[in-house]
Each structure stands twice: as C-alpha cells, then as structure tokens.
Amino acid sequence: MTEPLRPTLLAVADLPQALTDLCGISLLERMRRTALHLGFREATILSNSNESVTKHFARQSWHRKDIALEFRERKGPELTIGDVQDCLSAERVLVVCAGFYCDGRLLRALAQAEQDSVLIDSDVPSITAPLWKNSGKQSFGRSVCAAVVSGEWLSRKSRNAVIRKELESGVMSGRLAAVDSPRRCADGELPAGRPRPTWLFPAAHG
C-alpha cells in the first residue's frame, strides 16, 4: 500500500494561549520540538500577533536552524478555511493548534492518516474536562486540536467558513475520519497510559 505523502505543517499560534508556559517552555516551543522529532524541517506559523511570535522564537536562537519557519498573520476573530488555503503549499496540510500540548505519537498517527482526519479525544478525563469547556473559539472546537486535510477538501468549502465548525460537522457526519486518542490506546496502537491531546492555558483566558 502506498503511504500518504507527508503533509506540510501549519501551526496556528494565537495569543495568549500559544505562548503559555508549561514547566518553563511555551506550548508553541513544545510543538516545534515535537514537529522536529517527527521529521518536519519546515513549518508555517499563522498567528494573530506575528510580532510577539517572531520575538518569542528570536529568543530561541540555538534552535533557529532546526526547522525553517515562515510567519504569517491573520486578522479575523476565528480561523477560516481561507486562512488555511492561503498557507497551503502542498497537497495535504497538517493543521495544529499551538494552544494545545499534543502527544507526538498522536500527531504522527494523524500525519500518516490516509484520508482527511481530525484528532479528537472522545473520552476527556474529568480532571481536564474544565479546560475544554470553553475551547471553541480559541481552538478548532470542543475536544479538537489538530487535523490533516487536503487541498481538495478545502476547495469544497467557503473561504469565509470557520474551520472549527467545518471540522466538527465533518466528524459528526462521518465525512472526516477521527483519530481518537482513547480508542487508539484501547486498541493497543499506542502504549498504555492514554496519552491525550490536552489543552492548557491560564484559566483567566478561558
């Protein structure tokens, strides 16, 4: 069976969530390190504040050459289909919300998916459920933090459509496949311990 082409990487780094520190390292920087570990050597950073994001990476001088980064800025209140299309440089794109911390094994499974797919957690642990409660506008939607989609899928949507709504609708209708964290653990595809795509940011911004 032919393996799917590696998608390009698009990190949605909206502030303040993406620059939230987790044990002294921002969620955006953790995502960059995970991407590097997965073999990505270039990525596009799409943010609502390019100035803050570029300054943040400028402080990480010893890592600058690990991944070639292209910075783009968006203006709307929510990420749209058009925002992603404008960053599309290959047949498929892996879109990751940098306001989440995702286990690298889950992102690898998503990047290797043979069809348009969304990373979800269908069984959010009670201890982290409050973090997801108001996640809609800041991410792609409730319990959704990443997706891999094709240019063809994007072309069938209105450029002005909010992508989180399209992803949620696609998963619920079955038009998009789901890469489900707890199901993959239960099926033995991932080691025990149920790694989850956890969304972390200060409660004051929730």
Strand order of the largest sheet: 5-4-1-6-9-8-10
Secondary structure: helix percent: 25-40%
Give the helix/strand class.
alpha/beta
State the total count of DSSP E strands.
11
- Poorly predicted spans: 199-206
Global outline: globular
Along the chain, the helix and strand elements come as: EEEHEHEHEEHEHEHHEHE
Mean pLDDT equals: 79
Q: In percent, how much strand structure appears in the residues?
A: 15-25%
Number of DSSP helical runs: 8
End-to-end Cα distance, whole Å, is 44 Å
Word description of this protein:
- By secondary structure, this protein is of the alpha/beta class.
- The protein has eight helices and eleven strands.
- The strands form three sheets. The protein has a seven-stranded mixed β-sheet with strand order 5-4-1-6-9-8-10, with helices on both faces. Strands 2-3 form a two-stranded antiparallel ribbon.
- The chain is globular.
Produce a short descriptive summary:
By secondary structure, the chain is α/β, with parallel strands linked by helices.
Secondary structure: elements and pairs:
Blueprint lengths: L7 E5 L8 E2 L2 E2 H11 L4 E6 L2 H9 L9 E6 L7 H5 L6 E6 L2 E2 L2 H8 L5 E4 L8 H4 L11 E7 H5 L7 H11 L3 E4 H6 L11 E2 L7
What key attributes describe this structure?
7-stranded mixed β-sheet; 206 residues; disordered C terminus; two-stranded antiparallel ribbon; single chain; alpha/beta; 11 strands; 8 helices
